[in-house]
Amino acid sequence: MNLLEHTISSIRIPDPTAAESVDAAFTKKMSVDFGRLKAALLRYIRITGERHPAHPQTRVVISCADHGVAAESVSAYPPETTLNMMCNYLIARGGAANAAANYAGADLIVADLGVNTESTDIPGLRHHSIARGTMNMTKGPAMTRAQAIASIETGIALANECADAGDRCILPGEMGISNTTSSAAIVASFLGLIPEEVTGRGANISDERLAHKVEIVRRALEINLPDPHDGLDVLSKVGGFELGCIAGLILGSAARGMLVILDGANTTSAALVAHALAPSCTHYLLASHASLTEHSHPHALRHLGLTPMLRLDIRLSEAAGSSIALRMLGHMLNVWETVDISAKDDSPIGSRCVPLCPQAEKAAPSLPDQAAMDACQYRLDNLAKPIHSLGHLERIAVQLAGTMANERPPIDARAALLLVTQRDLSKQHEQLLTALTTGTDISVHILCTAETESDAYRAAYDLARTHPLLILGTGEFDGNRTAQAILADALRGAAAGSSLILPGDAEAERAACRVEEDAVIRAHILHVLPAMLTIDAPLAVGAAGLLGMENVRAALHALNDMKTFTETSVAVAIDGVGAGRQVRE
What we know:
Strand 7, helix 13 (about 295-305) and strand 8 form a beta-alpha-beta unit. The chain has two domains: about 55-325, Rossmann fold, CATH 3.40.50; about 350-560, 3-Layer(aba) Sandwich (Rossmann fold), CATH 3.40.50. The chain has helices at about 5-10, 15-30, 35-50, 80-90, 95-105, 145-165, 180-190, 195-200, 205-225, 230-240, 240-255, 265-275, 295-305, 320-340, 370-380, 390-405, 425-435, 455-465, 480-495, 505-515, 520, 545-560, 565-570; strands at about 60-65, 105-115, 125, 170-175, 260, 285, 290, 310, 355, 415-420, 445-450, 470-475, 500-505. It has 23 helices and 13 strands. By secondary structure, the protein is α/β, with parallel strands linked by helices. Helix 6 packs across helix 10 (about 230-240) and helix 7 packs across helix 9.
């Protein structure tokens, strides 16, 4: 029995007992609906079998390989970019994967599965090269069946290494020019879809190159006729070495009882290969975000029975989205521990919540600084990645640059929650605030207002002047009309104080939508629920904003930790919207 067969035979469906007990207790002790976030918590508890598992020790694993189909000019970047990016990860340390690992507090592993050049001089690189890239799949199989098995077994070995080191979670990623062509063909093979349904722009290619890419996928499928009932056949005919490695990471993690959080279309296509070989491996998977612009992604997620918790429009499988999902899971672990343990403890909680004494006078809000926004966007465009590939994270960074009048807002920009209420918070809501602010630098301020709406304006303005990031939430109100009036005044005050405002719950989101006829105020609002956080739950007391702050912190890590094409010597775009906009001096 080889390693692949042994691993598949070792995969078991997790025992649901612990998760069922936690589900019942959570529902009894916490009335707030967390939707998909609770489902993620229960999945992790089911995997560990523990009532209160620790936050998972995690590693980001980036598998790299070249593709023979790159010869068909289906990418916006030249083939040498794969090597450039490996050097970026391990020498310049300025890739999106580096930023994601920094943000998540995870170690980074970079492995060469088959880059078409010598790579022995790259410090820290894991050398697992199977061949100098795959063959051109438009002329025949991309690899042999033996090579497909070797790529998967490499991933299994890496997963075993992570498990032996105490990891409980892996965030897989990849780097390989033209691999979205391969992943589109994989999804089409397994799901019986036509190329137009699964082929996206990848690294933001032009319309002409996209039409050509669709035909390349069609040609690869017609020539190779992959068998959808045989995962190794699909991988060998239209796959890539790095995608096989990710499939192996998933299988190895499932066999060792580790969680894998998927990030983007390519990692999800690799999950289809793993699923074809061992369907039970899906019990160990979480989907982080949906990429609607990479057409194969939603189809693959549905086939796997996975529902993402984020909508970020990220088109980059370097753990940018999965690192945020990991932090969301951490928050849910804190919530569960707080509500379960505090039931046995009558000591006061929520001690971080302090009254705010409004003192500031009213001032007129102004539009964000356009020059700072333009400079921030230019930097983002010239970070070593496909242009616009970080989706909503780029929009967040640019919007904050404008409100702070700083083209490069710092990672540690101060943040606060302003909670307006007419009555004292319930114990459950205090527990929730305590849990969601544990381990963060977010200060909580509760404004108990039964007086005038202008109190909320002055309180928000006063707080916004010292906190560039302000979450607005609601507590207990006697009537919806009263709440909306107070929230509207708080929104105007926060905008006047030049803060980026995150409506923190459904009530605050409704108020934000109602004041958006004012273009100045609208420019200061960052919608979280449901624009970016797709959990099918309204949340309460600013919880959506507290969770949404993870998107902001991830965006700031990308802006500050990543390096430019000039700093990393990575090749710039030769096609699409990046051509001419991206420069390497």
